[in-house]
Structures are given as structure tokens and as C-alpha cells.
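We treat protein structure as text, and this decision shapes the records that our systems exchange. Below, we set out a record of this kind in full and without editing:

***
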Amino acid sequence: MNPKDALHQFFGFESFRGSQAAIIERVLGGGHALVIMPTGAGKSLCYQIPALLPCSDQDSKAVTLVLSPLIALMKDQVDALRASGIEATFINSSLSREERERRYTEVAEGRYRLLYVTPERFRKPEFREVIARRDVRLLAVDEAHCISEWGHDFRPDYSRLIEIRELLGQPTTIALTATATPDVQTDIVRQLGLRPDEIELFHEGIERPNLRLDVQEVWGDDEKLEHIVAVHGRHAASTGSGIVYFTLIRTLERFSELLRQRRVPHVCYHGDLERNDRRRIQNEFMQGHCPLVLATPAFGMGIDKEDIRFVLHAEIPGSMEAWYQEIGRAGRDGLASDCLLLYDEADLTTQMEFIRWSNPDADFYHRVYDFVAHDHERATAFGLDWLRDQLHAKHKHDHRLETVLGMLERYGVIEGTWDDESLQLDVLSALPDELLDRDRLAIKLRRDQEKLLALVRLIRHEGDRMDFIREYFGQGRKLAMPMDRP
């Protein structure tokens, strides 16, 4: 079977698009690839097709390992592959212990051509033991921008890719993402332990012609409301859906009330909702029962809906990358869709504040760690609110504590759960040097501020905004040599 036969037999397509065929040919030949391809352009096929084409009889038990941070998407992807007759599965924290152990056994016995896991799974000795029994012919790193701490969604476990590749026997590797600046592209290559001459860049560009990008400067809620109502009205007769993004929950709730007064049907999605409510709203949206969702950025991870007709940002996002990723959820069916950013200069203050709270300094890391490690009993008993009091971090939008706990978990310093009532944490190791390096943390803060500034510059740009976006994401550039980072 050749790639085109596999494409037709398993996926029902007659021909490849863009660089898909060239990427697949390189991967099948043992060459590494970095793929930057717009959302909906078919990145997944670039590793799914090679996974189905053993190069020899000895490859019949080979497995393609897919690293992805998106637990919410794994089940959907695996279900779709199984429906096409492809042996695939996932292993992540959503499974019961019994089901996880059953899949471990099946993987060890040679089942499955495709296995989806998060990079955090490599912390588990039992998984490392299982995967060591398999021939991992291809390693696919999805959402590869998460490798880079200079990206907009850094996952520390992605920075262990060199170690992971060594454990797997240095397999052919394909890294894929929809958005990566030149700095992030270079960092991806470095974090993979490769030289630029060992990996080929396939940059499909970032344009999606069916997306109509627009920016409107507004002053106050009244003008924002009129734009939201107008965009919703233009698409009210369609069968698709729309998303309006807000930064703050209180702003979302205020606009929800204003839309109710206008009799505009909608639902709300944000982090203060109960988990079951969030799941219910997401399912209803996916099934087409919610024509309009007001949401914080938490809504969208795991959303793969073809007929989203508009994505509107009622407040400026935190970075160019975040904005472009969020509008990428629109128009995946190829039909025309609107992407409107409403810019009120007053909203900048909120995002600047968020950037400060998402970049704790070394002293704050020290203080949180000392409480968790040395005042464990009281921290466990009284929860986050008590800990915030001790840290003098009672500002309403000061999320430094949650940021620090999240980073400590991602670096393997702690494990457990936490909420406003209690903390159930185990301390596993000391603070890593990366979280105590003042120069490094200062550079990270400045980079985040520059990402927001880039979005403001796009808004102010008087020329072709797509030219500005292409330049920002480095379209047409070659991979540079890895840069030394402090």
C-alpha cells in the first residue's frame, strides 16, 4: 500500500493537499520535519498516513507515538480513527486505573498503530517500561509550540523532548503546529535535540482565505454590544455557531445580561461554572444546540467544530498567538466566517495586569514552596484562600498562586489537587533552577509584554494586516541556528 492508497482507503480522500505528500515522503524516508500549517489544513494526516505504512515485515508491530497536550481532543481523534478501521488508542488521566492498566497491557503486547499520550505520561515509570517494549518508529509532537517557553502555551514537560527521544531510541520525529514565530521555530528544533540541517521546515503559511479578519476600535460597552448584536444578526439564519470571547468573567456576565435584554439567545462558559455544567455546555455547542456562546479563553481547547461562523473578541487577547489560535476555530468547513476584534484601549490595562500575575518572580516561587513544603498541615487544612492571605496576594485578579502551583506541578515538584477549600499536595522535589533564575524570569515577562504589544501594533497597522501577520510568524523564512538562552 502506498500513501495515496492509504489516504483513500482509510480517510476517503482522492488526493493530498499542499505539502502533505512531501511531508509524508520525508517522514517515511526517516527524515525529521517541522510542519507549520493552518488550522484545518490536515496536519494530522502527515503522521497518521506514515503510521499505517510499515516499511517492512519487521515494522508490523511498530507504533507511532503522538504527544499532545489536549486531553479533550484525544478521545475524538481516536474515535474517528477507529471508525475508519485504524487501530489507535490514548492513555491519559481521564481513564480509570483499571482501564489505564488494561491499555498498558495491550500496548505492551503489540496492539495499536497509533498511541496518543500527553508528555506528562513519561513521568510514570510504568508507562516508560511499557513503551520501551515497543518499536516507536515515528514520534509526532502535536501543538509543538508548547515546547518553547517563548511560545504562548509553554508546557515544561515538552522541554524533556531530548530525554524522551533518547528513551525511544531517537525515532524519526515530526513536530506540528499552526502558529510559531521564528524564535519559537528555532527553539522547537533545539528542544528536540536536532540541528537545523537535520530537520526540514514545511511552512504552509498562515492564511485561511475563508476567514474575514476585521478590527474595530470602540469606546465603552455600548459600542461593543452593538457590534456583537450586529455580527450575531448577520449569521442568525445560518446553521452554524458563534463564539464571543471575553477576558474577565464579570465582563462576560455583564454582557450576558445586556444580550438577554435584547432577547439574543446564548449560553455562557467560564471557569467558575461547575465541571458538569461546563461539559454540558460544550457538548450542546458541539451538537449545534447553542448558536452563541459567551466564553473566556478556557473555551476552545478541545473544540473541533466545523461550522463556527464567527469568532468575536470583545476584549483584546493577551498575545498575537492567542488571538490567531482562537480565530482559527472559525470556518473549519472552508466556508466564509467572520473574525472581529473589538479594541478598546482601556482593556489594555487588564491584559498588562494579567501578564504581571502570570509571571511570578523568584521570591514568590520561594514563598509558595516554603509554605507548601514546611507548613504543609495548615496549607492542606485551610486551602488557597488561607495561603493567599499569608502571601499578601488578595488582589481580585492576582493569580500568581495558581500560576506557581501549576508550574510546580508541570515541573514535577508537586502533585495533587487544590481548590478554595483545601490543598492535597505531595512535595516531590526541590525548586528547579529555571524557576529561581531572576534574569530568565525577567526576560519571560518582557517577552509576554512584547507579544501583547505586537497585537496592538497589528491593530494600529495602516497597511495590509496579513503582511504584518506573515512577518510576525516568519512566513517564508528559513530555520535559524539555535540561540543560547540565559
Residues 355-436 form a domain with the Arc Repressor Mutant, subunit A fold (CATH 1.10.10). Confidence is low (pLDDT under 50) at residues 482-486.
